[in-house]
Amino acid sequence: MAPTKMLQSGLQPTSVLLSQLDDTQSGTALTVTYYALAVLVVITLFRLRADLRDSVDRLQRQIVNIEHEQATVNFRWSSVYGYIRISLITVRNIEAIAHRHRALDDFEDNYRRNLNPERNRRQSSTHHSKILGFRGDEETNDMV
Fold this sequence. Notes:
mainly alpha, disordered C terminus, transmembrane, rod-shaped, 94% helix
């Protein structure tokens, strides 16, 4: 065998070993890289999950605050509505009482007039005679 061939044949197993060693190292490096990427992805997912939880918690607090404000506003409006309603009912009741009072006064006036028509005539004639200047006794009034 020529020395160059021997050298080549002697180098060949070493280069095969070196290439196998390089493949193993590159495979290990690749595996480590994949694991590192996987760990980074997992860490990133956990951070995103924590951020998402914080965002959801913040939104829930805002929803609770909005619901509380809405309930407060509804309570205030219902209180105002109740106050206005009671006020209007009171005014209506007062007006109804005043109307009944006027009707009762009118009824009493009519009743008194109709109760004693003769007396009303006498009062009316006495009133007219006083206006005209006649005396209050009946004889004088009868003469007129």
